[in-house]
Write a structure and sequence with these properties.
By secondary structure, this protein is of the alpha/beta class. It has helices at about 10-15, 30-40, 50, 55-65, 80-95, 145-160, and strands spanning about 20-25, 70-75, 100-105, 120, 125-130, 135-145, 165. Strands 6-5-4-1-2-3-7 form a seven-stranded mixed beta sheet, with helices on both faces. Helix 4 packs across helix 5 (about 80-95). The longest helix has 17 residues, at about 145-160.
């Protein structure tokens, strides 16, 4: 059955000013790239051809047309193996033009947080990710509900204010 949820590329293509992404999980479904990292394989960051993916190009193109893209990750400490890998590969996100920050979970007690990861486009449209217990996306939901958008926007900005820029967050 085809999904009625527009693709991420479509949503980003419609974005005029900003896209923000809040990540709340300490692990997601493993990928081949994660498994390679676990085996000790490392990326040659000097060989951009070897690691630059369509996602990276999409982000770079979107930033080039004036859209600000910010990503905040809430993480438990000590961090999980998956988060160690995410921190490592975040070099690609930053190179593509994303601003990325990290916030230790222990510092979020005073922040009302939504129960799911999300992308918020132009402070108006949310793409909410629903995961299985093992980190597989089982469904994405789109909403423009004003209360939900406000909760997510407020949560993201509160996290962003307290979070540590990627280049300063040491694992």
């Amino acid at each position: 059955m085809p999904s009625s949820v527009p693709s991420f590329a479509e949503l980003l293509g419609r974005t005029e000013r900003s896209a923000v992404h809040l990540e709340l999980r300490d692990s997601y479904a493993p990928t081949e790239r994660f498994e390679a990292w676990r085996r000790g394989e490392r990326i040659n960051w000097d060989d951009r051809e070897s690691w630059w993916h369509p996602y990276d190009q999409l982000i770079a193109d979107t930033v080039a047309r004036g859209v600000t893209i910010r990503r905040a990750r809430i993480v438990s400490e000590p961090v999980s193996e998956y988060i160690r890998w995410e921190h490592y590969v975040t070099h690609a996100n930053v190179t593509a033009g994303e601003e990325v920050r990290w916030l230790p979970r222990r510092l979020t007690t005073n922040i009302p947080l939504p129960g799911n990861d999300f992308w918020l486009f132009d402070d108006a449209l949310l793409r909410v990710h629903h995961f299985s217990g093992d980190g597989v996306v089982v469904e994405d939901e789109i909403t423009t509900d004003a209360e939900t958008v406000k909760l997510c926007r407020t949560a993201f900005e509160a996290v962003w204010r307290q979070a540590i820029p990627h280049h300063l967050y040491e694992i």
